[in-house]
Amino acid sequence: LKRLTVPAIRRRKGGEPLVMLTAYTVRTAQLLDPHCDMLLVGDSLGQVIYGLPSTVPVTLEMMAAHGAAVVRGSFHAVVVIDMPFGSYEGSPQQAFESAAYLLKQTGAAAVKLEGGEAMAPTVRFLSERGIPVMGHVGLTPQAVNVLGGYGARGKDEAEAAKIVADATAVADAGAFAVVIEGVMEPIAIRITDTVACPTIGIGASARCDGQVLVAEDMLGLFERTARFVKRYDDMAGRISAAAETYAAEVRARSFPGPEQIYPSRG
Ligand code: KIV
Ligand code: NA
């Protein structure tokens, strides 16, 4: 099984839906890789792994460390790494330095960055210099301090038109795919029907060219989740139950049992 490539992902526009999940660690990457076309090292790791209040404090060094682990744990999916807040917005040159650092440190194939029309020149700058870029429009969590929260976007016509313009701008600038997060469904359909690259939905529409979820959310491992998360498992419940059983057995001296100890040689 050879690793998929960015051009192969690009060619899936309008075809079989693209499957993407986040991964931050080697074991999760190993388990998800056979089922996914792309693994996203999302800056959502700020909340999910580090307990931070938003993605704003996430650093390049954190993304590089987790990105390297995910590349080591996968051999099939295209690994995409989020550019963290503050590492790319200043200028295309700043973005290139940050993105090159991430790709050199990790071996990942592509980066993702948030933003629309304002980021289009940066998307073009990176794409023309050997760095494939995935866009991200609609609900962009790094802009939480401007947006004021994580509610769905595009509820009035002006905002809807702006989101469509944003997606079109990054797609026209050379993005190989664009994530559409947390928007009214007609916006996601309009974008999907308009742009030349695949759209990856999260809280968007089944009509998108692919879907992404935070793995911990769909596994039932994270406490707060949005309406758009479907729970495919209750891992939090299963981990709690296992810890409870272990604690009871330790207290009852029934663990370790005969199979877990080294008996004397005599
Ligand atoms: O950081 C992340 O997990 C993401 C996805 C939700 C698209 O950007
Ligand atoms: Na992200």
Overview features:
globular; 11 helices; eight-stranded parallel β-barrel; alpha/beta; single chain; binds 3-methyl-2-oxobutanoic acid
Q: Strand pairing plus helix content: what structural class? A: alpha/beta
What percentage of amino acids are in beta strands? 5-15%
How many strand elements?
8
* Residue windows where pLDDT falls under 50 for at least 5 positions: none
What bound compounds does this protein have?
Answer: 3-methyl-2-oxobutanoic acid, sodium ion
Give the CATH topology.
Answer: TIM Barrel
- The N- to C-terminal Cα distance equals 50 Å
Query: What is the domain tally?
Result: 1
The level 1 CATH classification is Alpha Beta
Question: Secondary-structure element order, as H and E?
Answer: HEHEHHEHEHEHHEHEEHH
Strand order of the largest sheet: 1-2-3-4-5-6-7-8
Structure in a nutshell:
The chain is an alpha/beta fold.
Description:
The protein is α/β, with parallel strands linked by helices and 266 residues long. The protein has one domain: TIM Barrel. The protein is built from 11 helices and 8 strands. Strands 1-2-3-4-5-6-7-8 form an 8-stranded parallel beta barrel, surrounded by 5 helices. Helix 9 (185-194) links the parallel strand 6 (177-181) and strand 7 (199-202). Helix 2 (26-32) crosses helix 4, helix 4 (60-72) runs parallel beside helix 5 (92-106) and helix 5 (92-106) crosses helix 6 (120-127). The protein is globular and about 75 Å long. It binds 3-methyl-2-oxobutanoic acid (KIV) and sodium ion. The site of 3-methyl-2-oxobutanoic acid has 11 residues, from strand 6.
